[in-house]
Q: What sequence folds into this?
């Protein structure tokens, strides 16, 4: 008996990386799996292929599991609605959506085109809206449902050259939070994961020197997609009541992130002026301000 026996899970981006590992593991744990993947390139610039999603679904079936494939884009709301309807038709319902589908179009912001901005926002943020909105009324009607979204330390902390990706990924955190708040009374849960794992996204990181080469090798060997899948699927279990949280998975380490809350307050009973803010408030708050370090400065140690 698997912890997901009888559950039906839609997994986007299921043809590669974290999505693929999660789909295969979901099948092993007894879930019915809808494997969605556009089958496109990392940049999302080509038309895609039905092959990757069907290959993963076929592998699940070959191991005795239950799976179907879908190669539509998460950017197409009507297509996502059809994925939800397909789950209901094929398996009698839908319990969870796991949404790691994504693309990268990294560039320094002053060189970023509108096309590169729009494409990343469309897949990550609009795509997350689409998969959430397409299922939420069904989840509310049955008073049960679960979302696992994917954020990134690029959004939570920051990485140079990823303004589009960071904006989308931090937007997903806000989306998930509100879905969780609004869903409590209807038993709808929503959480986000910031994954550290060797995928084709991480493989695209430029290696510019020996230090970065060694760091990438450590990532490749110590941070695997299936380690992220363990948490994503645990969050789909009936034993889980966790909602509204931000997690990271880094090798064998699970991280619970804080969420924005006030860290320092200054009051002036006479009211602030630009001059008094510059002279008093900002200097007093300076020690509590976050620096501009990228995610590697927050996680400077080797994966556990």
A:
């Amino acid at each position: 008996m698997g912890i997901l026996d009888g559950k039906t899970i839609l997994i986007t981006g299921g043809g590669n990386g974290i999505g693929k590992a999660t789909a295969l593991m979901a099948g092993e744990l007894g879930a019915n799996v809808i494997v969605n993947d556009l089958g496109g390139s990392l940049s999302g610039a080509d038309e895609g292929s039905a092959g990757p999603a069907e290959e993963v679904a076929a592998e699940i079936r070959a191991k005795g599991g239950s799976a179907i494939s879908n190669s539509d884009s998460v950017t197409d709301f009507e297509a996502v609605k059809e994925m939800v309807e397909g789950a209901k038709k094929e398996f009698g319902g839908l319990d969870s959506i796991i949404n790691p589908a994504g693309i990268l179009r990294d560039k320094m912001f002053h060189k970023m085109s509108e096309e590169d901005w729009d494409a990343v926002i469309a897949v990550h943020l609009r795509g997350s809206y689409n998969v959430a909105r397409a299922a939420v009324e069904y989840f509310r009607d049955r008073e049960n449902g679960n979302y696992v979204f994917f954020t990134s330390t690029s959004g939570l902390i920051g990485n140079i050259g990823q303004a589009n990706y960071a904006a989308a990924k931090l937007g997903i955190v806000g989306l998930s939070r509100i879905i969780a708040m609004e869903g409590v009374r209807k038993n709808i849960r929503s959480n986000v994961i910031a994954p550290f794992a060797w995928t084709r996204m991480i493989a695209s990181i430029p290696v510019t020197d020996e230090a970065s080469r060694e760091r990438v090798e450590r990532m490749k060997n110590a941070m695997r997609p299936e380690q992220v899948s363990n948490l994503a699927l645990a969050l789909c279990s009936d034993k889980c009541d966790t909602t509204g949280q931000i997690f990271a998975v880094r090798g064998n380490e699970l991280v619970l992130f804080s969420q924005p809350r006030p860290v320092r307050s200054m009051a002036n009973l006479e009211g602030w002026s630009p001059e008094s803010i510059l002279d008093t408030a900002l200097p007093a708050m300076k020690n509590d301000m976050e620096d501009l370090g990228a995610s590697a400065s927050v996680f400077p140690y080797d994966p556990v």
Notes: The radius of gyration is 21 Å. Residues 17 and 199 are 5 Å apart (CA to CA). The mean pLDDT is 93. The domain at 8-260 is CATH 3.40.50.720 (Rossmann fold).
